[in-house]
């Protein structure tokens, strides 16, 4: 029994040494560097996107598009969609093919290159739902907030709030 426990202890020590050596390996380091130096970004705006929904009777639905821009360059598809939607709501998911989108050197404007359709019942509870637009290359995911406000106020009042 004593020999078996010594063998098991030696084997565990060997495994621990091998695992520790992998933590600092070039493979792990390059994977960490790749996630920190990706070459594209979901355009960050100073405020969340906002959509106002007039609360309505049973059966009434609302749909609208959220648009966004991804800047930089990328060599693989960038998947996108929305999450954290109001209960029962859905959003389309799609992808942006490999390419690039750089700010105009004269005025800093960028081309809108993504949009997602959101839709759902206008009878969900009155609230401001903090949804998120997400874009991912499969390794890195970036998000931007998008408020969906279900209210009894007018659309104009809601948008100015």
List the keywords:
3 helices; elongated; 161 residues; alpha+beta; 11 strands; disordered N terminus
Characterization of the model:
This protein is α+β, with helices and mostly antiparallel strands and 161 residues long. 24% of the residues lie in helices and 40% in strands. Strands 2-11-10-5-7 form a five-stranded mixed β-sheet. It has a three-stranded antiparallel β-sheet with strand order 1-4-8, with no helix packed on it. A hairpin with a 4-residue loop joins β10 and β11. It is elongated, with a radius of gyration of 24 Å. The N terminus is likely disordered.
Mean pLDDT: 82
Q: How many beta-strand segments?
A: 11
**Strand order in space, largest sheet:** 2-11-10-5-7
Instruction: Note the beta-strand portion.
Output: 35-45%
Number of helices: 3
**Oligomeric category:** single chain
| Overall 3D shape | elongated
Rounded to an integer in angstroms, the radius of gyration calculated over CA atoms is 24 Å
Low-confidence segments, given as residue ranges, are 1-35
Give the SSE string. HHEEEEEEEEEEEH
Mind sketching the topology for me?
Elements (H helix, E strand, L loop, with lengths): L1 H22 L2 H11 L3 E3 L6 E6 L6 E8 L1 E5 L3 E6 L6 E2 L2 E3 L2 E3 L12 E8 L5 E10 L4 E11 L3 H6 L1
Parallel strand pairs: 2-11
Antiparallel strand pairs: 1-4, 3-9, 4-8, 5-7, 5-10, 6-9, 10-11
Give a short synopsis of this structure.
By secondary structure, the protein is an alpha+beta fold. It is built from 3 helices and 11 strands, in the order ααβββββββββββα.
